[in-house]
Amino acid sequence: MSSSPAVTPDRSAPGGQRIRVLYFAWVRERVGRAEEVLDVPSSVTSVADLVGWLRQRGPEYADAFERPEIVRAAIDQTHVRPAAAIAGAREVAFFPPVTGG
Amino acid sequence: MTVRVQAEDFDSAAEVRRLNGTSTDAGAIVTFTGTVRGESHGQRLILMELEHYPGMTEAELARIEQEARSRWPLTASLIIHRYGRLLPGDNIVLVVTVSRHRQAAFAAAEFLMDYLKTRAPFWKKETLSDGTGGWVDARETDDTALERWAMPDVTAATAP
Predict the structure, then answer these.
(1) Does the beta-carbon distance from B159 to A51 stay under 8 Å?
(2) ipTM value for the complex
């Protein structure tokens, strides 16, 4: 077996969870995809933790979350603050401040 | 009490007739239509693309409408918001509030627009005549408008 860590194994860390993560507007453009299903380790317990974990995943994530203070989040289609717990979340979305109306 | 999110255009007069039906309860109907401005940053606007979050958009608009109905005695209300590719002059959003008296209808319509602009998950992307453009920045004035209604900001940033 190669020692290359190129492919993330499809397994959850003990106590971790599988979450559908969605990206919108320029967050989507920078990450390079609209959504993905991720196995998040148990050490990641809040939205802020999830942002920190995503930023380690690659330059496209580091770029999208370069200024995490301006990125908004929703859990299961409800706005949340950075300290919100992700336990039990099925869907977490990241997006810029909204500009509708 | 209706919320619609659609790519298609809407006819505000037809929507008001449909909403009010044959009822004679209303003494006041306020209609607000938001349209695409043909100018941005001193340039001519060529195209506006509106992205949204299907599912959350409808849920959030319904929550906003419910909040308005808990504050004012509305006999009917309607929110329609479009998404997709829009051109200058095109309709973007329609808010209709119906009440027995004008104060409630005016206030509720303004509340709905202020809330919608800061909470409904829509994002505008502009293409301008000089080739520039990009995602529209959120306006601080929208957050200031929200403060008038003394509601907590539930859309805080992701960093602590």
Answers:
(1) yes
(2) 0.89
Residue B85: pLDDT over 60: yes
Note whether B4 contacts A: Cβ–Cβ < 8 A. no
**pLDDT tens column, A52-61:** 999 999 999 9
CB of B44 within 8 A of CB of B128?
yes
In our burial notation (b when 16+ CB lie closer than 10 A, e otherwise), range A77-97 reads bebbbbebebeebeebbbbbb
Cβ within 8 Å of residue B70, ≥6 positions away: none
Dihedral (CA of A46, A23, B64, B110) sign:
positive
Pick the CATH number of B2-129 from 3.30.390.50, 3.30.420.40, 3.90.1170.40, 3.50.50.60: 3.90.1170.40
